[in-house]
Amino acid sequence: MTKKIVLLPGDGVGPEVVREARAVLEQVGRTFGHTFEFSEHAIGGAAIDSHDDPLPKSTLDACKAADAVLLGAVGGPKWDDPKRKVRPEQGLLGLRRGLGLYANLRPVRVHPKLAAASPLKADKVEGVDILFVRELTGGLYFGEPRFREQLEGKVRAVDTLEYTDEEVRRVVRLAFRLAGPRRKRVTSVDKANVIETSRLWRETATEVHKEFPDVALEHQLVDSCAMRLITAARSFDVIVTENMFGDILTDEASVLAGSLGLLPSASLGDGTNGVYEPIHGSAPDIAGKDIANPTGTILSAAMLLRHSLGLTAEAEAVERAVDDVINSGARTADMAGAGGESLSTSAFGQRVLGAIRK
Ligand SMILES: NC(=O)C1=CN([C@@H]2O[C@H](COP(=O)(O)OP(=O)(O)OC[C@H]3O[C@@H](n4cnc5c(N)ncnc54)[C@H](O)[C@@H]3O)[C@@H](O)[C@H]2O)C=CC1
Ligand SMILES: CC(C)CC(=O)C(=O)O
Ligand SMILES: [Mg+2]
């Protein structure tokens, strides 16, 4: 059966890395005998330019009608003026909300051949295998009210941090489920010593834990978690946390893996549809140079095959191909610390494509 995949290349390096992931998916289709129907739509800054809207209705409608969505990244200096009413990032937030994608899965694994790409000592990063489950449609990025005002001669800005117990429950429950077939250990990260929403988060996680007696639960404050990620990352299995903490901790965790460009993600809700995207942004500093690492996006395509299309063998074929290519010594510039042969984005993508086997 034909599967509909919407591509949202977005801004900066987004189109460069999505191009490679699409080529890999096409190769999977040829190798395994599937038909994937691709359609490309505008989001972010590109959509502000073309539609005056970071998430045009036509884009959201296409994503709703698709089996899965593969996204590059949004944002960049062109749209960064703080006085702008509309920003590229609103397109991505609107898409996550619009599709009800409340959980963002961000696996962080250290490839043995890339341990030296990390600025951390090899003994701190070897063997790391963490699954972050980040809440994605609540918290500070969505809370209302948010505004700026003049108050007694000062400028005052307000954001709102808000969670309901139900929002916490569903994402924590997913984290426990995902921990079952892994090492059965969930670390719930919060700032319960200071923040009310975190106290609700901790209480709710403790309550949900009763449904999963064979999985261990520990609570950790976000500040010491940030430190433990550097000093003892192997001690983590599944980490579940709220939207902004998860956003920040996963960029930090990418340093363990060796590069932000390596890490994939899956944004999931209750159905099978999902948005798959690398965890990095639009990387304006390297955009247009054919040097971005497409691995995070290619591995996101593997997650798409597994979670939205139910194609496990195909997902494994992509992951194996990436492994083989890295084992062969192929690198992009950001992985140079691990030695090997430095390739362009497109040359690296071609190597992965060539390594897809049934
Ligand atoms: N999901 C998304 O679309 C996200 C968008 N952004 C947006 O991206 C723009 C730039 O944000 P930054 O803070 O610079 O974060 P960024 O993630 O774009 O870049 C941070 C650093 O990582 C490097 N990097 C990122 N992706 C890479 C790749 N594939 N290969 C090699 N190196 C890579 C960049 O060159 C840069 O040095 C902003 O407009 C921001 O709002 C940021 C994060 C997520
Ligand atoms: C809205 C995005 C720019 C937030 C982000 O950095 C991310 O989801 O990784
Ligand atoms: Mg981020």
UniProtKB/TrEMBL annotation:
Subcellular compartments: Cytoplasm
Indicate which residues the UniProt annotation says bind Mg(2+): 223, 247, 251
The residue ranges of the Isopropylmalate dehydrogenase-like domain are 4-352
Q: How is the cofactor bound?
A: Binds 1 Mg(2+) or Mn(2+) ion per subunit.
Question: Which pathway does the UniProt entry assign to this protein?
Answer: Amino-acid biosynthesis; L-leucine biosynthesis; L-leucine from 3-methyl-2-oxobutanoate: step 3/4
Residues bound to substrate? 96, 106, 134, 223
Residue sites binding NAD(+) per the record: 76-89, 281-293
Reaction catalysed by this enzyme: (2R,3S)-3-isopropylmalate + NAD(+) = 4-methyl-2-oxopentanoate + CO2 + NADH
Looking up Pfam families in the UniProt record yields: Iso_dh
Task: Name any one GO molecular function.
Answer: 3-isopropylmalate dehydrogenase activity
- The UniProt site entry described as Important for catalysis is assigned to 141, 191
Q: Tell me the SUPFAM superfamilies matching this sequence.
A: Isocitrate/Isopropylmalate dehydrogenase-like (SSF53659)
The cofactor named in the record is:
Mg(2+); Mn(2+)
Q: Which UniProt keywords apply?
A: Amino-acid biosynthesis, Branched-chain amino acid biosynthesis, Cytoplasm, Leucine biosynthesis, Magnesium, Manganese, Metal-binding, NAD, Oxidoreductase
Say where the protein is mainly found. Answer: cytoplasm
Which EC number(s) are documented for this chain? 1.1.1.85
As for family, the record states:
Belongs to the isocitrate and isopropylmalate dehydrogenases family. LeuB type 1 subfamily.
SUBUNIT field: Homodimer.
| Role | Catalyzes the oxidation of 3-carboxy-2-hydroxy-4-methylpentanoate (3-isopropylmalate) to 3-carboxy-4-methyl-2-oxopentanoate. The product decarboxylates to 4-methyl-2 oxopentanoate.
HAMAP family in UniProt: LeuB_type1
Q: What is this protein's name?
A: 3-isopropylmalate dehydrogenase
Origin species, per record, is Pendulispora rubella
Task: Identify the coding gene.
Answer: leuB
